[in-house]
Amino acid sequence: MIDGLLHDETYLSSSARRFRGSSVVGRIYSIHAENTDAFVQKFDSLESSSEKSQIFLSRYPQSRLIDLLDISEIQCYWLTNNQGKGAMEPSLEKLNHFIDTTIESGEGTIFIEGIEWLTSLHGFDSVHSMIRLLSEKISMSQWCVYLSISPTSFDIRECSRIYREAPLFEPNQHTSIGIEEQSVADDNPIVVEHSANLEMDLNDDGTPKLVMLTRLPKKGFTKQILQRRILQWRRMGLDTSDIESSLYSEDIDGIYSDYTAMEEKIRRATELERYIIEHVNDSQERTIAFFRIRQLTGLDELEKQYFSQ
Prior knowledge:
By secondary structure, the chain is α/β, with parallel strands linked by helices. It contains 13 helices and six strands. It folds into two domains: 2-165, Protein of unknown function DUF257 (Rossmann fold); 176-307, no CATH class.
């Protein structure tokens, strides 16, 4: 029995080394994540072509996911017994049918979160059978599947059985910022305060404090890089609707010009917020100012109010 467990752990280690950082289509992988936030942060660092489909199946509705990922770029389905648009019954039959239909054509990536919850509903053996069948079907497609797995929710033997079908994949946490950091010296960045797993300090009202991220250089600038930056800004609570409209343009010079204008607005907003945190004690005044700052409106008036004193 012990030998069997040791053999399983050896298999897991070799599989993890084999697939770490090099996912391919036609495969299914496991990603260690204790919660939805951690799963999103890990798969957000994966390189993915904007031309390929991305689908996220989650225990949470779109309203809970909007602050974690760009739901305009990823098709999100809520696993729930509630009826409604974007909802999917959490039955294994419905999941199998949906995935079968999806992978019949095209190419892309499917992210599935909530394997532990599905196990609590249907039992481990049933969920494991679904994963095994899914692995066989995916192998004949142009799709790739990532499962969110919380290792503390399964025993060693159960984890081993999952990893035999869906080997452990550890994405490179620096993938999403590599292009920015490579050319950062070319463009005199304002302040470097950025990582793939950006941790936000909170204000007294619970909103994230604004921080200046590394300025994106023009060399190597793409829509995909801008999309990631917009998502980071949205996680700070900033209104990015103005810059989002630029993504529909094909003029990369014009898009970069719009980006630099947005970057300047956020620099001003960040300086205003820091001043207000340090010098404004009235809670109502702070709340109103923070709201205007995150909407990026009235910056001229706020600067005149606070910086002309």
